Each structure stands twice: as structure tokens, then as C-alpha cells.
Amino acid sequence: MRERLSFYIPRESFLHSLNPLTKLTLVFAAILISYASPWYWTGLTLLGLLFLLSFVGRIQREYLRVVFNLLVPVAGFLFVMQAFFLPGGESEVWRYWFLSLKTENLWQALQNATRIMVMVSTFILLILTTHPSELMGDLTRRGLPATIAYVITATLQILPQMQAKAATIIDAQRSRGLQTEGSFVRRVSALMPLIGPLVFGSLVEVEERAIAIEARAFMASTPRTSLRELPDTMTDKAIRWLLVGLVLVALVGRIWLS
Questions:
Q1: CA angle 212, 217, 218 (to 5 degrees)
Q2: On the CB side of 158, how many CA atoms lie within 13 Å of its CA?
Q3: Which of 41, 52, 66, 250 might form a disulfide with 37, Cβ 3.0–4.6 angstroms?
């Protein structure tokens, strides 16, 4: 069962076994390559590789669900708007009334849409295959300040935490006879009894978390130890250097063709 406080899905896979820094490097490398590369097909190639990586990590079902429910509508809307309304372009391929579709705008819209999809898709892979505490624990061990690590961890956990709390509140209100399903008006009227407990419960959790981290000497200046040491193998280091090399190739190609 998936953990309530994160989107992490525990599986036995090669992607899960990689060091968190390696997967974080993959995220930034994919984003930099997609934006630095001068070739239009780069984004589509990266999306194909990310799709294959979801199978390697055995999270293809969850990955594709998020991609098709969240990314495809946003990227599709962006593609349509830019394809029709980007200024410039010379080779017109279709026109209807004031709408004009040009080849240059089509390629530019495709490139921008795939860049957005690559950027979000890599983060989806990261949060589905890496537990937030492992990521921040490894980065803290490498020198990241604990306060920054806490802010990032809390940010990664806030959405699943709110979803879990909202589901609990909805079940509790239903047990008291509150109608949360039916017509649109009925569902809107049921929001107020749900919003109050959700907001005040979140504020209470913030205070409890502050007390808990203070009790654990969060601001202590002494060196910290970890119960679990995450391995950083030669495979991880080789993958990171390979990703850095690919970023440099994309930058050189951009400069060479500019």
C-alpha cells in the first residue's frame, strides 16, 4: 500500500535502487537537455525514454495515469494556442477565417509543449521512485543545510498529506449523514463542512510538527548520523557523469547551430 505522506511507491526495481542524487541529476539533465537542444525531436525522444524508465521502475500505471490526466490536457492546450497564435512564420499550411496554421509555428509549439511534458514527467518519476526522506537525507549528508532539506521535504509531502486528511474528513462527515454526492449544488454546499476541519487540522499539524522537530534537536550544530546509509555505487557515478556529458553535448549543439 502506498504511504499516506508521500507519492512514493515502494517497488523492487533498478530505478528504485539508484541513489537519490542520481535520479535528481536525471531530472535536471532532462530539463536542461530539452531546453538547450536545438533539435525539435529532442523532447519527443526524452519523453520516449521517460516512458521506458517508468517500465524499468515498474510504476508505468501510476506514471501514465498522471501524465494523461494532468500533462496531456495542459500540453495539448499549450500546443493549440501557440500553433495558432504565435507571431511570425511564413509557410502557411491551413487557414480558416482568422485562424492560420504555419509550419514554423507548429514545430515551435511542439517543442514548447514537449519541454513542459519532459520537465514535469521527470519530477513525476522522481517522486514516485524516491522517498522524500531518502532524498533529503542523502542531500543533507552531502552538505545541504537541514532547514532547506526540511522545506523541500514538507513541500513534497503537503499534497498527499492534504489528500489523506481530506479523505478522512469526508468519511467522517458521511458517517454523520452529510451528503457529499449528487448534484453540483449539493456538492458545493457540502464544501464548507469539509474546508473548516481541513484548514484547522492542517494548522494543528504544523504546530505539532514544529514541536516534534524541535524535540529532535533540529537546529543542533553537531554532526548528524543516519540510521540508514544509502549506497552510492560506481553505477550511480557513471550514470551521473553520462548525464552531465549529454547536457554538454546539447549545449555545444545549441552554440554550434546558433
A1: 75
A2: 10
A3: 250
